[in-house]
Amino acid sequence: ENIFDRSRMAPKTPIKNEPIDLSKQKGCTPERNPITPVKILDRPQPDPWTPTANLKILVSAASPDMRDREKKKELFRPIENSEQSDTPDSLQYDIVDDSTVDEFEKQRPSRKQKSLGLLCQKFLARYPNYPLSTEKTTISLDEVASILGVERRRIYDIVNVLESLQLVSRVAKNQYCWHGRHNLSQTLKMLQDAGELQYGELMTSQHKELDLEYKFGERKKAVIPDSQDRPLLDFSEPDCSSASANSRKDKSLRIMSQKFVMLFLVSKTKIVTLDIAAKILIEETQDTVDHSKFKTKVRRLYDIANVLTSLGLIKKVHVTEERGRKPAFKWIGPVEFPENTDELRGHSQTSDPLPETQKGACAQYLTSTAGKQRFTRHASFNSAQPCEATRRKVSSEPNSPRQERQDENCSKMINLASVCRQKIEEDTGSAKKSNITLPVSLLPVPGDSDFCVNTLPQAVFPVVQADVPSFSLPIGISSQASHPSMPAASKTENGKPTLVPNQPFLCFPSSSLFMLCGGLQENNLSEPLPTAGDLGSRSAEAQAAVPPTVCQKRSSQKCSSPSAPGDDEEPAAKKQTLEHSDLPISLVVPKKPSESPKAESSPGSGCSAAVHLETNNLDLASPAAPETANKESTKFLDCQEQGKQSQKKDPDDPPPGNEHISKENANQAFQQQYLYVQPTAGLSSFNFLFSANQAPGAISLAGNQLPSLSVPCVMVPSAALASFPLVCSSSFTSPLSPVPDGSFSAAASTNFSMSSLASTTPVFLSTTAVVTPKVSPTPSADPQQPPHPALHLSPVLTRSCSAVKLDSPVCMGHPVTLVKLQQPSSASLTPKSIRPAHHEAFFKTPGSLGDPVAWKKNEGNQTRNASSVQRRLEISSNSPD
DNA sequence: CGCTCCCGCCATGCC
DNA sequence: GGCATGGCGGGAGCG
User: CB within 8 A of A67, min separation 6: which ones?
Assistant: First the structure.
């Protein structure tokens, strides 16, 4: 093994020149390698197995004296190796001479040779920029440190920066997973978006980077108090851990790195001076910048800059200002991030084979993300991330595994989310905006919009596009996930186009998902405020729009359940609610009823529509419903738009509840077609479709009675969703619903708990694939449920929104009917079973359910359905079948 | 002399 | 107490 590694490394490393010393060394000992005989590592190394094992052994053997020398030498070794290419290590070591060594020592490498930048290059040389998706490369800190001959501390510096760009992710204690640059563009995109949010305004207006930056600083202070700390991108996981530990500002280096990169991306000139960057960064963090802090910050920036330079993303330059010449860095990396979604799409849409895993991963990520968002992601996380978690555990994560994991997850999630979104968006075209609360905001991709949706004007978050595929996958998912390679292909295949276009319904893929997640978590948390605030604050501040979204969420929640915890907290949301109202309500009719079926069926399309009811909306909706119906078609778009907006907003809010909104029961109204409701804010992504016909009556849920009802159904975009696992209703547990917990939990993977939100809602679904199959099925899902479908709801509804919660089972692919929850038995689908279903994605309620097919037919709504509510989920695309 | 930034102390958290 | 992380800043190398 060792050999293997080395060979890998060595050859590749371009490494630069040898250290000066080397020359001398060589001189001295020409043939031999300079290598000193043994180098002793300070740290005892444990594993013989590891690649470095040999070294370690040797080292141990070595005398103490040697150590020192060796240490020095160590640096060289790598180089040598590379140069030599493969000299057998062992030999070299054996040979060593002291004398040689000494000389070496004397010559000791100059400081430059020990620079972090150089070290980083060596580090990077060891790993492929674009690793095969399948192969997962794990990085052992100890191993790398010993190989590169540096202290572990230095490796942390490198890894933390790389992690901020998602080139690597922490898997466990001392272990990182190398992802390569597959996701780099996505990550950058996300950062850019996030940066725009944060700094953008300023930037835009201005341009001068510097100046801007300064301004930013100021601005930010004002605006974003909270956010400051948070990493822009969550992936890092900023706080995920949050609760537990925010204490250490953790990962400030990571956060700083992200922010630093953001500054470049936002800057027109692409040049950022260190002092400005330092000021900005400090300001965010603190108001007063004291000199010492400034100096420290600058030091850190140098560290980061060195790594970024090694990555080829920036280069050092000097800017001459009035004050004089100042050190600065110029961004030389990619500026546009076209790729975006490809990969994502592919994956998600694909529905394919991979999908599961990927989806799972995505979902997880998403979930986590959502959770993460500031809060804790706990449950979701845990459940969600089985894979990763497992792995990690295995590896034994070191510290706060959870947190870290979470973080990681988060980041991954984020990535995924973004990816998903992108995909979705692309697919859909409309994309939604944002949903995600992620710290980073994702922007919708402008490009496609098949559908209609426009993006928000502001677009608060840009989505990142990119290829995300890799992201998470790698990590969380096991390998497969990675199909990164596929991206393109898949994309195309799956392509957004497919999805969206055909579908009758709208899908909101990603965004919705995201939102959901967020919301859920929040709910769970029940402390929306804070969280929201944080994230939101940033975003919110940045974006005025945001609020609305929040509102929506909240509103829905509120409506639905007063009790819902979340509600309170978010006053703003409430306010916003108003805004929501607009959106929420609108239902759109699916344009294509007929199509819809197809869509659903069609795998590719994946996303189909989802229907959403939102409680809040309900209120509105109910009345509105009719209107909506009419409008529907029009609305479609509108809704979407709204959704987008809302989504945007969401960002601020974290996650909370938006999704819930969906709960709204718009249903009533819609008869015939499905209505599409857009969720306002948070949900944005989710859409619910209801059959118009059915709804009303059948579903009692619907509106009338319950405004709050939440309908459980949600659609998720297929592809996009795929990734996500699911959503759960918050309440599963909850009281109300009888829901079997299991269902959700099963889903676990994703689970969120939305409970709070519960309000209603929710539910969701995700694509099948995404979901984990494993998960347990949602109970209700089934199609056939008993006839009650609606029933439950109603009652529930009545109770209260919150009560309602329906727990929805989540379904992964399938549409699940929430309703069923109550009846666990019936419904639950197993995941697997579901899958197939997914395609269709519809949920029907009891009545309807019968076949999916029927559904399709029904689109029109069938009578049967009428009674029951139908829900459809979309599923993803893919399908398997 | 000032820019860089290496080095490693030491705090924080989790066992 | 030990270990993994990683914040932090002294102070040295270099141009």
Answer: A39, A40, A41, A42, A59
Q: What mean pLDDT is reported for chain A?
A: 44
- Angstrom distance (rounded) from CA A785 to CA A798: 20
What is the four-CA torsion angle of A249, A253, A259, A264, rounded to 10 degrees?
A: 170
Cα A679 to Cα A35, A88, A423, distances in angstroms: 65, 63, 19
Q: Is the CB of A828 under 7 A from strand B?
A: no
Q: In what order do the strands lie in the sheet with A314-321?
A: A271-273, A324-331, A314-321
Query: Helices A98-107 and A20-28, interaxial angle, to 10°?
Result: 160
Rounded Cα distance between A560 and A552, Å, is: 12
Give tens-digit pLDDT for A767-824. Answer: 333 333 333 333 333 333 333 333 333 333 333 333 333 333 333 333 333 333 333 3
- For strand C, give the nucleotides within 7 A of a protein CB: 4-11, 13-15
Q: CA at A151, C1' at B8: how many angstroms apart?
A: 10
Q: How far apart are CA A774 and CA A784, in angstroms?
A: 20
* Amino acid identity for residue A341 in this structure: T
In angstroms, the Cα distances linking A682 to A138, A189, A552, A568 are 37, 22, 6, 16
Residue A271 token pair = 């040049």
Which positions of strand B lie within 7 Å of protein CB atoms? 3-9, 12-15
* A327 CB closer than 7 A to any strand B atom: yes
Distance A378 CA to C3 C1' (A): 25
